[in-house]
Amino acid sequence: MVKTTNSPEETIEFAKKVGSLLDGGEVIAYRGGLGAGKTTFTRGLCDGFGIGDDVTSPTFALVNEYRKNGKALCHFDMYRINGADDLETTGFYDYMDGETVLAVEWSENIEEALPEGTIFIDIVRIDDNTREIHISGDDRFENIGD
Question: What are the strands of the beta sheet with 119-125, ordered from one edge?
Fold first, then answer.
């Protein structure tokens, strides 16, 4: 599935649709360079999942937890993670409880640790406002871009 958005607001609205289809327990692996819009997408994802849009980048914290109404989403930044030992210190595996959604920025750095069934979201920065968003790994999102 491929969707093109032409503003941060459109990216958020599209991500809300994705978030509304989450059940809980999914691992979402973002791929995309600096400034691609991963945190912007997570803002919409959280809102669509029902836990609000007060989302900030986890760059310095490594993980930000968002909880509301019995739902949870953990937003990871794996930019500085260089292997299994580093990953263990983030508590990543502890969050895989079957209910918490894990949204992972810089998932390329931990690709070997991602579980089967991971949803991949590739965000390509076309220009200052335009993003091309590719979703793979789960049929629920096959026609969401229409």
Answer: 2-5, 131-136, 119-125, 27-31, 101-105, 71-77, 63-68
